[in-house]
Amino acid sequence: MKQRIMSGMRPTGKLHLGHYLGVIDNWVKLQDDYECFYQVADWHALTTKYDKTQTLRQDVIDVVSDWLACGIDPEKSTVYVQSLVPETAELHIYLSMITPQNWVERDPTLKDMAKILKSKEGMGTQVNYGLMGYPVLMTADILLFNADFVPVGIDQVAHVELSRDIARRFNNVYNTEFFKEPQPKLNNCSLICGLDGNKMGKSFNNDIKISDTEEDTAKKVMTAITDRSRIRRDDPGHPDDCEVVYKYWKIFGTNEEVETVCSECKAGTRGCADCKRQLGAKINKRMHEIRQRRKYYEDNPEVVEKIIREGSEKARLEAQKNIAKIRKLVKMY
Ligand code: TRP
Ligand code: SF4
């Protein structure tokens, strides 16, 4: 029997290279060795965007289209939408009863989210009840399938740690060994930063989307920051102070190419504009096949819809089996 993987992503719309290199590529590689469940967490999206749901449906389709384009294979993995597996909500209720309030209050990721929220308009300084339950809902996602491993980015590790605590607590309270303690699984890829050197993110306007055209990609790369101390083309450069372009080369180039960039830059024989042009072409080459597939799904949304429906059906059958056992353990009627 293969060990089980469960992971998810909020439907934030079209995904960027940070998602691809940091998470999805890892998911793709795990498909052969594990039984994988990959979820679009639309309820999690509601915890902060309950009043902005107009684009939610399309956002789900965009996220799944990106996954499929990157190589998530619905023949191998179960791709599903959280709200189409309502057993998740039932498990969330049971888990919310056994989770001490201070466990969620001290969750660092949640604290950050609350801080960001407080700085925005809308509910003002209020954190809604649903947001406090964010890590408990995520725990329900993971435990509903009794996953062994949860491949996530570094920002989600604290949540997975909490899910281990909650699993253990449930087992103690109901005197069972039903839930496994899921383990976070980080990948070894170095995090790709945004074009301005900050964390890559849609809202920072510093990202390259998986679905961007080659022209857009090339243009965006030209805006990337370089070694700021360099003024003229033949000034010697400092690759290690070139926080974005040189780092990208290390991700997208071969060792040989990186060495060439480094020595030419230091010697002052490589101009930054040329350097970025080459880098843009390099990224486009790496993304070419993915983008062709992405275009296919964009043109055929009914194919994506069908994959979502069938995957969610499959996930639900498994969830129903488990929730029946959990109800018994809790001694529900
Ligand atoms: N919280 C995760 C994120 O924002 C998404 C998520 C929801 C998730 N449920 C999950 C991740 C279960 C791993 C396992 O990216
Ligand atoms: Fe950066 Fe390339 Fe310019 Fe050197 S030549 S500073 S590596 S962009």
**In percent terms, what proportion of residues is strand?**
5-15%
Count of strand segments: 5
Bound molecules: tryptophan, iron/sulfur cluster
Q: How would a crystallographer describe the biggest sheet?
A: 3 strands, parallel
Order of helices and strands: EHEHHEHHHHHEHEHHHHH
Radius of gyration: 22 Å
- Main sheet: which strands, in order across? 1-2-3
Q: Which percent range fits the helix content?
A: 55-70%
Tally of contiguous helical segments: 14
Gross morphology is elongated
What are the segments in which pLDDT stays under 50 over at least 5 consecutive residues? none
End-to-end CA span: 32 Å
Query: How much is the average pLDDT?
Result: 94
Specify the structural class. Answer: mainly alpha
Question: Can you characterise this structure?
Answer:
- The protein is mostly helical.
- Helices cover 56% and strands 7% of the residues.
- It is built from 14 helices and 5 strands.
- It has a 3-stranded parallel beta sheet.
- Helix 3 crosses helix 13.
- The longest helix is centred in the C-terminal third of the chain and has 30 residues.
- The two termini are 32 Å apart.
- The site of tryptophan has 13 residues, from strand 1 and helix 8.
Can you give me a brief rundown of this structure?
This protein is mainly alpha-helical and 333 residues long.
What descriptive keywords fit this protein?
two-stranded parallel ribbon; 333 residues; binds tryptophan; mainly alpha; binds iron/sulfur cluster; 3-stranded parallel β-sheet; elongated
